[in-house]
Predict the structure.
Amino acid sequence: MSDETEHPQDAPDQTPTASEVLADVPLEPVVVEGEPVPADPVPTVPGEPVEGAFVVGDRVQLTDPKGRHHTVVLEAGREFHTHRGAIAHDDLIGAPEGSVVHSTANTGYLALRPLLADFVLSMPRGAQVIYPKDAAQIVGFGDIGPGMRVLEAGAGSGALSCSLLRAVGEHGTLTSYERREDFADVARGNVGAFFGEIPANWSLRLGDLDQHPATETVDRVVLDMLEPWAVLPTVAAALRPGGVLVGYVATTTQLSVYVEALRAQGLWTEPYAWETLLRPWHAEGLSVRPEHRMVAHTAFLVTARRLAEGAVAPMRQRRKKLV
């Protein structure tokens, strides 16, 4: 073999840069033969209201150049004052979502309606809130959807209640129990602020979950309490066969006691326990790496399903320990 043969390790890097990739992106819609021509966007007629524009009473999240969020509720004639000048509410009213509004010091602020995750992280708190990463897992792994009847304990600051109410929709119901009146007041205020009013399909009850009548059958149960194992008899009586029970516990000791209590009751499928770690990534050009900070352990989640009356789950086979 000739000494002039190029070795693979000596070959120039053929990976395209970000600018080279973007240069290949067409600026005009691509027309494929046999396919309909993409329609032009509908032009906005001057003077006509913009679909989804901000109106009086809207909650608006303003993001400054450093990424800091400021939330305002729009009122005609009012101003929002920042260390970079004032922003007139009238400049936002009637403007489309996603607009940029400038303060009196000519600093631009991006205006959007806050997402539920944004609202939860900035809401007034009584009890510690369930973070969006865990709320999403509860709704997803709990298989909570439109029309379902959901039982929750406790309500805390109302963060999870907002997610559950949105998941069940107007045809579902949510019954929340909260032992502390001050927490219940905070939850009521937060849920009302997010939805604009207290949803008619939400029942917030002051007291313990063990007061829940067995005649009020539910499809899903979510427990966020110090000793969830104490209410398992009440939960088992109210949850329909096949229904999903989701537990949220903070410590390994709680996790151990709760899982063993589920097994001992003999009315549940094998509990499944996990935690979720959220690690953002920095992606700028070819500088792609994990961020230095992450949302790590917040709590353990445990799911189990209600067995039919008299049913005995097959014995779970576990690997034998080597002697």
Summary: The mean pLDDT is 87.
